[in-house]
UniProtKB/TrEMBL annotation:
Major location (coarse): nucleus
Function: Catalytic component of the NuA4 histone acetyltransferase (HAT) complex which is involved in epigenetic transcriptional activation of selected genes principally by acetylation of nucleosomal histones H4, H3, H2B, H2A and H2A variant H2A.Z. Acetylates histone H4 to form H4K5ac, H4K8ac, H4K12ac and H4K16ac, histone H3 to form H3K14ac, and histone H2A to form H2AK4ac and H2AK7ac. The NuA4 complex is involved in the DNA damage response and is required for chromosome segregation. The NuA4 complex plays a direct role in repair of DNA double-strand breaks (DSBs) through homologous recombination.
Keyword Transferase: yes
UniProt-recorded name of the protein: histone acetyltransferase
Biased composition (Basic residues): 242-251
Molecular function terms from GO: histone H4K16 acetyltransferase activity; zinc ion binding
Length: 360
């Protein structure tokens, strides 16, 4: 399954077999066709009713209403909770153990995915549900989206398919799911290199992942030596008020390679290159004339083993202009069970006085 971007479409496909879907009490249009059984869903189906807890579907509103009163998942999602922070939780379920649920979820997701998806051969996948629980109503929850992952990926993919359901998009939830996928894969990996999403990416998927990679690398480069003085842990990077009498600091710099950054962030070299080009804050530390190769990173002027000059001041400018929060939206302390940190207190606090905002 190729990842899809959590950003909404504006022009639904004309060959949809379902025009609208009712998820719980929400009505919204579909984008693409899904392979629902033709004896139940056909090209004349205008409205499909889908249970917001188990994704069981029906064209009969009365059957749908009756099911929602009896759904076995109306009080808790299936699987095991692996993450919980700020009202958002992630639940891991095995496609082999919850086969019908995974099939129904995949059929529903295909209504909003342009790429080929797995519907019935779900046993080789793990599914991670993004759930929101209102603290004022803890017995009521909402599934906002999900990502799937192959149990064994020969291509080192850490994510197969990702979708935030249309009513819940534009809330930075896609980044939360991507972050969880990288965290879990990094803890599973022994090499430090945890791969990336399954390729090829859609145009919108590439855009979403590029932004995610840029922020991931920006956080690493800004925080590896400490936190900027003006950075707020829970907010965006604010603009700095410069003092006209402040002495000019000596610019410092640090040399590193694309490979170094990839190993530090668990990202593939090609993804690091994509992000660095977007950040516009690095330049080769060697002369401009280089031996040309067929390697994509070399063509971009960023060889995997070639030293780079990283200008932290430009990364700060990028972070400010894009209103990037320096604190990762995924918190280590939010992970539960086998992924729970051994000792969350081991995370060191960064002294804001130790950071030089200049080139680094």
């Amino acid at each position: 399954m190729a990842p899809s971007d959590p950003v909404s479409r504006t022009e639904p496909s004309t060959d949809r077999n379902v025009k609208h879907v009712v998820l719980g009490d929400l009505l919204f249009p579909t984008w693409y066709q899904s392979i629902y059984p033709e004896d139940l869903v056909n090209k004349d189906t205008d409205r499909l009713y889908v249970c917001r807890w188990c994704f069981r579907y029906s064209c009969d509103v009365h059957a749908y209403a009756q099911h929602t009163q009896l759904c076995q998942h109306r009080t808790t999602p299936p699987g095991t909770k692996v993450y919980d922070h700020g009202g958002y939780s992630v639940w891991e379920l095995d496609g082999e153990c919850h086969k019908l649920y995974a099939q129904n979820l995949s059929l529903f997701a295909k209504l909003f995915l342009d790429h080929k998806s797995v519907f019935f051969d779900v046993v080789s996948f793990l599914y991670y549900l993004l759930v929101f629980t209102d603290p004022n109503d803890p017995e009521n929850y909402y599934v906002l989206g999900f990502f799937s992952k192959e149990k064994l990926s020969w291509d080192a993919n850490n994510l197969a398919c990702i979708l935030v359901f249309p009513p819940y998009q534009h809330k930075q939830l896609g980044k939360l799911l991507m972050g969880v996928s990288y965290k879990i894969s990094s803890w599973e990996s022994d090499s430090g290199l945890i791969g990336g999403p399954e390729r090829p990416l859609s145009e919108m998927g590439h855009r979403s992942y590029t932004r995610f990679w840029q922020e991931r690398i920006a956080r690493y480069l800004l925080l590896q030596t400490g936190k900027p003085k003006e950075a707020e842990a829970s907010g965006s990077v604010p603009l700095k008020q410069k003092s006209p009498k402040a002495p000019k600091r000596k610019h410092t710099h640090e040399l590193m390679t694309v490979q170094d950054i990839g190993l530090a962030t668990g990202m593939l070299t090609e993804d690091v290159v994509t992000a660095l080009q977007g950040l516009g804050a690095v330049e080769p530390a060697t002369p401009a004339k280089k031996r040309r190769t067929k390697d994509s990173s070399a063509e971009a002027g960023l060889g995997a083993d070639e030293p780079l000059l990283v200008r932290k001041s430009k990364i700060l400018e990028w972070a400010k202009s894009h209103h990037m929060a320096l604190q990762d939206p995924v918190r280590d302390e939010g992970f539960l069970g086998k992924w729970a940190p051994v000792d969350s207190t081991e995370e060191s606090e960064v002294d804001s006085d130790d950071v030089d905002e200049d080139d680094g």
